[in-house]
């Protein structure tokens, strides 16, 4: 996951000062030196680092901190606030035109993820905001770009406008907007051509497209793995075209995070969305405050809740609670529960959103890979219905059969049975505690 090194270093630095009852200027100096190094190592633009350190230092030795009862924590709060500001402050949403369709021009270098992101974004707006987007294939140079968008359209069941690769992008864009008007689409995403490097011809053409369709948004798609190059690309595109925002892709990779932390400060452009994988739902609106707290190990519980809300079925959750209470929880429920968690995304990413997750060293070493989960699923699926409901009947010969059926060693079957047993015990204790509370008439 992105930002790992930076998060580790910032958290261990801040940990030292967090609990301090008294903070001297010298403490702040030592801390800021470490923060500075951590940011530089994460490939943050040096000027941005300098400004950031200056702002935090001034505030950290100021009255708001020194006079407070918990100065250590106040320093952490200042870092959090300044980091949020650095990442853009407020969330920047995508424009909505008062006269639909809202025209969104997608630009960027080849390979940054422009076509993929056009599909993701259109899909996101349809799913989350009930919009009806049209995608337009105006990249007539990259071989297969049009085909790629058409395939995405089919996969998403989303209309794609294309006129082949013999018509000029300006004409394609114009006609696409016209078509969107006729079909009452509220968004049109124009996937424009990219190049390996910025060149005059490309910019000239993009300017013409801009002139012709007067887009409400011109979003630059940049690859966060390219670090400071991404920032330079953003600066050039912005100078020439006048961008309205940036989408950072590949934040699921092990980027050090420099691009995300420098782009807003260097270019003034907000990061509107981030790409977190190759799949069509791997996109998230960018919330500077949530990202800052993730980096500082304070968790991102809000995103976690939002993910749970869209993936976890309310009725099922209630049913499950009841089963936990009356102890009728079976392996079938367990299987279903795992399916729901899996829908929320890769497990290590989900756990990373919990407060303090970075500090749980043990957690980090547990590589929770999806393979392990499919092994557990295979074992449960090899049980009969009777066994899933009454796991206590699973004797040695049944275990052997289950191991064989799932292709997993017998020890793994044993381990899963033991875990399930422990879980049930824990539920029993918990429900006992709840009942005890009720009986005892605890008052709050
Ligand atoms: P374009 O040339 O800018 O249109 O780039 P594409 O949309 O064809 O993407 C280039 C490659 O990057 C493809 O293999 C995509 O699957 C991949 N990609 C795009 N966005 C992301 C992302 O957020 N994470 C990861 N891991 N891969 C991505």
From TrEMBL:
<keyword id="KW-0378">Hydrolase</keyword>
<dbReference type="InterPro" id="IPR000897">
    <property type="entry name" value="SRP54_GTPase_dom"/>
</dbReference>
<dbReference type="InterPro" id="IPR013822">
    <property type="entry name" value="Signal_recog_particl_SRP54_hlx"/>
</dbReference>
<keyword id="KW-0963">Cytoplasm</keyword>
<dbReference type="InterPro" id="IPR042101">
    <property type="entry name" value="SRP54_N_sf"/>
</dbReference>
<dbReference type="GO" id="GO:0005525">
    <property type="term" value="F:GTP binding"/>
</dbReference>
<keyword id="KW-0342">GTP-binding</keyword>
<dbReference type="GO" id="GO:0048500">
    <property type="term" value="C:signal recognition particle"/>
</dbReference>
<dbReference type="Pfam" id="PF02881">
    <property type="entry name" value="SRP54_N"/>
</dbReference>
<dbReference type="InterPro" id="IPR022941">
    <property type="entry name" value="SRP54"/>
</dbReference>
<feature type="binding site">
    <location>
        <begin position="249"/>
        <end position="252"/>
    </location>
    <ligand>
        <name>GTP</name>
    </ligand>
</feature>
<keyword id="KW-0694">RNA-binding</keyword>
<dbReference type="GO" id="GO:0006614">
    <property type="term" value="P:SRP-dependent cotranslational protein targeting to membrane"/>
</dbReference>
<dbReference type="InterPro" id="IPR004125">
    <property type="entry name" value="Signal_recog_particle_SRP54_M"/>
</dbReference>
<keyword id="KW-0547">Nucleotide-binding</keyword>
<dbReference type="InterPro" id="IPR027417">
    <property type="entry name" value="P-loop_NTPase"/>
</dbReference>
<comment type="function">
    <text>Involved in targeting and insertion of nascent membrane proteins into the cytoplasmic membrane. Binds to the hydrophobic signal sequence of the ribosome-nascent chain (RNC) as it emerges from the ribosomes. The SRP-RNC complex is then targeted to the cytoplasmic membrane where it interacts with the SRP receptor FtsY. Interaction with FtsY leads to the transfer of the RNC complex to the Sec translocase for insertion into the membrane, the hydrolysis of GTP by both Ffh and FtsY, and the dissociation of the SRP-FtsY complex into the individual components.</text>
</comment>
<dbReference type="InterPro" id="IPR036891">
    <property type="entry name" value="Signal_recog_part_SRP54_M_sf"/>
</dbReference>
<feature type="domain" description="SRP54-type proteins GTP-binding">
    <location>
        <begin position="270"/>
        <end position="283"/>
    </location>
</feature>
<comment type="similarity">
    <text>Belongs to the GTP-binding SRP family. SRP54 subfamily.</text>
</comment>
<keyword id="KW-0733">Signal recognition particle</keyword>
<feature type="binding site">
    <location>
        <begin position="191"/>
        <end position="195"/>
    </location>
    <ligand>
        <name>GTP</name>
    </ligand>
</feature>
<dbReference type="InterPro" id="IPR003593">
    <property type="entry name" value="AAA+_ATPase"/>
</dbReference>
<protein>
    <recommendedName>
        <fullName>Signal recognition particle protein</fullName>
        <ecNumber>3.6.5.4</ecNumber>
    </recommendedName>
</protein>
<comment type="subunit">
    <text>Part of the signal recognition particle protein translocation system, which is composed of SRP and FtsY.</text>
</comment>
<dbReference type="GO" id="GO:0008312">
    <property type="term" value="F:7S RNA binding"/>
</dbReference>
<dbReference type="InterPro" id="IPR004780">
    <property type="entry name" value="SRP"/>
</dbReference>
<dbReference type="Pfam" id="PF00448">
    <property type="entry name" value="SRP54"/>
</dbReference>
<dbReference type="GO" id="GO:0003924">
    <property type="term" value="F:GTPase activity"/>
</dbReference>
<dbReference type="Pfam" id="PF02978">
    <property type="entry name" value="SRP_SPB"/>
</dbReference>
<keyword id="KW-0687">Ribonucleoprotein</keyword>
<feature type="binding site">
    <location>
        <begin position="108"/>
        <end position="115"/>
    </location>
    <ligand>
        <name>GTP</name>
    </ligand>
</feature>
């Amino acid at each position: 996951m992105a930002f790992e090194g930076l998060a580790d270093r910032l958290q261990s630095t801040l940990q030292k000062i967090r609990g301090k009852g008294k903070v001297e200027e010298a403490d702040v100096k030592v801390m800021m030196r470490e923060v500075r190094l951590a940011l530089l190592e994460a490939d943050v633009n040096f000027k941005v680092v300098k400004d950031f350190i200056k702002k935090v230092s001034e505030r950290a030795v100021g009255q708001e901190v020194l006079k407070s009862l918990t100065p250590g924590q106040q320093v952490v709060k200042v870092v959090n606030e300044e980091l949020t500001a650095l990442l853009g402050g407020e969330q920047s949403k995508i424009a909505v035109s008062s006269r639909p369709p809202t025209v969104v021009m997608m630009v960027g270098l080849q390979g940054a993820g422009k076509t993929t992101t056009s599909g993701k974004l259109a899909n996101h707006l349809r799913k989350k905001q009930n919009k009806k987007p049209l995608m337009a294939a105006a990249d007539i140079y990259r071989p297969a770009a049009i085909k790629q968008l058409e395939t995405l359209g089919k996969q998403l069941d989303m209309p794609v406008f294309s006129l082949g690769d013999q018509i000029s992008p300006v004409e394609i864009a114009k006609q696409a907007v016209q078509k969107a008007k006729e079909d009452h689409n509220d968004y049109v995403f124009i996937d424009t051509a990219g190049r390996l490097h910025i060149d005059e011809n490309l910019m000239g053409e993009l300017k013409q497209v801009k002139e012709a369709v007067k887009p409400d948004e011109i979003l630059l798609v940049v690859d966060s793995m390219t670090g400071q190059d991404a920032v330079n690309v953003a600066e050039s595109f912005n100078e020439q075209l006048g961008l309205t925002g940036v989408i950072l892709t590949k934040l699921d990779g092990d980027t050090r995070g420099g691009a995300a932390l420098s782009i807003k400060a260097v270019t003034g452009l907000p990061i509107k969305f981030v790409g977190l994988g190759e799949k069509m739902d791997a996109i998230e609106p960018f919330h500077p405050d949530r990202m800052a707290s993730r980096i500082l190990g304070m968790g991102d519980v809000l995103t976690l809740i939002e993910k749970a809300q869209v993936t976890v079925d309310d009725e099922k959750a209630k049913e499950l609670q009841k089963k936990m209470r009356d102890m009728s929880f079976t392996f079938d429920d367990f299987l279903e529960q795992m399916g729901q968690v899996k829908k929320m995304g890769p497990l290590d990413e989900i756990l990373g959103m919990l407060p303090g997750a970075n500090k749980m060293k043990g957690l980090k070493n547990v590589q929770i890979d999806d393979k392990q989960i499919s092994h557990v699923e295979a074992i449960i699926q090899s049980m009969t219905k009777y066994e899933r409901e009454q796991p206590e009947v699973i004797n040695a010969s049944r275990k052997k059969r289950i191991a064989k059926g799932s292709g997993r060693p017998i020890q793994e079957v044993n381990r899963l049975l033991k875990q399930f047993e422990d879980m049930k015990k824990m539920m029993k204790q918990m429900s006992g505690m709840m009942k005890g509370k009720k009986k005892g008439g605890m008052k709050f």
